[in-house]
Design a protein that fits this description.
It contains 6 helices and 8 strands, in the order βαβαββααββαβαβ. By secondary structure, it is of the alpha+beta class. The mean pLDDT is 89.
């Protein structure tokens, strides 16, 4: 049985079976580095363990993309159990007063009422993280050690820790810009307390060194 000859390829006919290479923008695969490397810690309130045993390092990151990958993977603070904390600190600084980078410092402390756990806590915490990793306080960002969110039955707390409680200019810059970033009303004051005062307090409250 006769068969027809295979048709020879026309040299003028374009080849369509091979895909043309697609140009990939460097933006699609190059991660955006942060100015600092950060570590996220989680504290679980387990009464059967010591404080240090309850503190666990979750992950470290130094790019914008890795920050969002981590943030989108973990629970929001409002979903944590009472007694639990998240701590975001610069790499090499542990979230404890005794750390060499923390012991001479203090914290801007914001206390939230129970209603704010549902309305404001998660948003405030996200803005706090963005302030830190984005170095939002200009030169004063060098004084930043980290931030902590405490989930508690009587009211949650968010604090930004700095390295030197005597560095008034940097502390006030951080406090004023932080308050503005969170859109906290002018009449609502937030205070800065030294770790030394907090650790040695005799009552339930600690005096503020500064306030905005």
């Amino acid at each position: 049985m006769a068969t027809s000859e295979p048709k020879s390829a026309d040299p003028e006919e374009p080849q369509t079976d091979v895909a043309a290479p697609v140009a990939v923008s460097p933006e699609q695969y190059v991660k955006h580095p942060l100015q600092n490397r950060w570590a996220l810690w989680y504290f679980k309130n387990d009464k059967s363990k010591s404080w240090s045993e309850n503190l666990r390092l979750i992950s470290e990151f130094d790019t914008v993309e890795d920050f969002w990958a981590l943030y989108n993977h973990i629970q929001q603070p409002s979903k944590l159990g009472f007694g639990c904390d998240y701590c975001l600190f610069k790499d090499g600084i542990k979230p404890m007063w005794e750390d060499d980078r923390n012991k001479l410092g203090g914290r801007w402390l914001m206390t939230l009422n129970k209603q704010q756990r549902h309305n404001d806590l998660d948003r405030y915490w996200m803005e706090t993280l963005l302030c830190l990793v984005g170095e939002s306080f200009d030169e004063a960002s060098e004084d930043i050690c980290g931030a902590v969110v405490n989930v508690r039955p009587k009211g949650d707390k968010i604090a930004i820790w700095t390295s030197n409680c005597q560095n008034r200019d940097a502390i006030m810059t951080i406090g004023q810009q932080y308050k503005e970033r969170l859109n906290i009303p002018a009449k609502a004051l937030i205070g800065y307390q030294s770790h030394d005062d907090t650790s040695s307090k005799s009552g339930s409250t600690t005096k503020n060194m500064y306030s905005v």
